[in-house]
Amino acid sequence: xxxxxxxxxxxxxxxxxxxxxxQQREQVLINSGDDFGKIMPVDGWTxxxxxxxxxxxxxxxxxxxxxxxxxxxxxxxxxxxxxxIPAVQNxxxxxxxxxxxxxxxxxxxxxxTDAWAGKALPQDMHPEDRARAQQQxxxxxxxxxxxxxxxxxxxxxxxxxxxQGEFGxxxxxxxxxxxxxxxxxNPGLTLPEPPPNASPSQNAAWWASLSSAGQSILLRDHPDWxxxxxxxxxxxxxxxxxxxxxxxxxxxxxxxxxxxxxxxQTKSVYDPSGNLMANALRNLDQIDRKLRSLDAxxxxxxxxxxxxxxxxxxxxxxxxAVGVGNIDTAxxxxxxxxGFTSTVDRSLHGYDQDMNNLQQHSQNLASRYGDxxxxxxxxxxxxxxxxxxxVLNPDKSVASDGLAKIGAQKLDxxxxxxxxxxxxxxxxxxxxxxxxxxxxxxxxxxxQHDTPVKDAVVFGSPGLDISxxxxxxxxxxxxxxxxxxxxxxxxxxxxxxFGTSPYQGISGGVLNDIQQLSTGDATGADxxxxxxxxxxQYLDENSTSQYNxxxxxxxxxxLAVRHVQPWxxxxxxxxxxxxxxxxxxxxxxxxxx
Length: 593
Fold this sequence. Notes:
Layout: H1 4-9, H2 12-37, H3 48-101, E1 104-106, E2 112-114, H4 127-163, H5 175-185, H6 200-208, H7 212-221, H8 223-226, H9 234-266, H10 275-302, E3 306-312, E4 319-324, E5 332-337, H11 344-369, E6 375-381, H12 402-425, E7 430-436, H13 438-446, E8 453-459, E9 479-482, E10 514-517, E11 522-524, E12 527-529, H14 544-553
Parallel strand pairs: 5-6, 5-7, 7-8, 8-9, 9-10
Antiparallel strand pairs: 1-2, 3-4, 4-6, 11-12
Domain DUF1023: 316-490
GO molecular function: hydrolase activity
Keywords: Hydrolase
């Protein structure tokens, strides 16, 4: 494997000059070779000598064809190498700069040493951020060296094969045809595939190590590699997923035609139990709902200013994530995870509008009262949420955390992917996780793992699957909750199957560091906002609950309106003769005399 210092010394400009010289020599070979090809046969020359001359001519022409074919492929490979090397070197330089920022030094073999060992970290540097940066640096250097080895091995192979005359058939009519056929029929340098079972930071490092030309080729030829790959830029994922939509729709339409044929055939089959028809109709309905999901995605994307960050048609239902704004250039990114009964076909339209409103509200607060950073929001329906029909199914029930745990693993990858892409580009990131209903349970489980989330808001939450606040890897003072006065969901988990409640007003809810925000009528920094009462109203436009979320997303949680607990409300002086009101859990005191 090449070392860091060796790759940094590679001279792409020199390779480019050699390639240009090779192209000139190739052209001379083509012109001279084709002229040579025209000298035989000579009119009127026959006999043994003519036959021997013809054989020698054909042999030489064969060799010229092979030489031209090899020269053509070598020229192509040199040009590809000269284009690919700067991206690898830039990736190494970026990793070294990130290492210097966080107090590390990159060794020649890609290993890291801690230059700040035994020293206190700067006050504005969080240990969690430094640990993530350390892993990102390791992955960046490892992937850069992996891509460098791929370039080196491929170019070596091309040069060896050309020297051995392995390119071209020698049977082409002209030397020009031989060179053209060899160039079009041989890839030259191949692009490295994504690392297997890669983490988001490894994916980000792989993508950063590719040249712009290589990235464009993969977007054209392998969008299926890219669209759902956590760690890649949102613009890349969206372009890939949008490109995949026609093929996904065509495949579903073929399945729909076949499923409809089964339904039609089943009508003439003796089926006293009705099970055959029920199964056939269930399959047809599932495909129908997937096609309607693609319709919903198309409608959302048609609004403009959207990014299709996840597209997965496997399983029982389509999974998708749609961003409002640009998650690559936005400093403030919010990822919203919905819950019970949410599906792409039925829910994306409304949630996309909610996230559009929240993005605008957050942007307004960031521009007027914050750091003026750009804001992007994401509707993440990247898991199969529990449905009403599955309430009694222990594996899929809303009363179980089974689907939440599956979803949390995917959400964790998505959140870390946003962070890894920002790290790779050097773009600052303030990431907020939003979770509603069962989606707050999914979010709570995801936040028990290392993510770049700096703030989180859960609303209408049945629980977070935690026993104490320290289970959540969110900075202290940056975990928030909301609960509307007529929302029954936070009280449903009376057995605490989903852990300690995030609300202090519920028995067992003692998580003092989860700050409850108001959902009542209130006046915020940008004016008055209205109360919300029900489970589905938290994201209502111009509501206090939406304002509070927008304040958190904009990086100004200090602007949010706090919920005042009953025991925190001021108590008027007791009237003589009346009992003194008692704090919660205590008996009233005798009236004053």
